[in-house]
Amino acid sequence: MGPTTGDAIAKAEQLSEYLTGTTNTMPDWVRDDPQEEAILAEFDQLAFECAACGWWCEIGEANENPDAGEDDICNDCMGG
Description:
The chain has helices at 8-19, 28-32, 36-43, 75-78; strands spanning 47-49, 56-58. By secondary structure, the chain is mostly helical.
């Protein structure tokens, strides 16, 4: 069960702490939250899911995927 109080920014920070460095799936508490869109918008400033390895990484590790698409890849998959 996720946070039940707090603004979208605080919830996005908690989501980032939960996902970053894992291959966990998006938790149900995000989908069930009435602020889902705002939480995910704030989360996009903190972390992303690597299109190559599926790990959640800090946004600072995002690299444009040279092979295709708009999905970013992490530093490890980029070879850095």
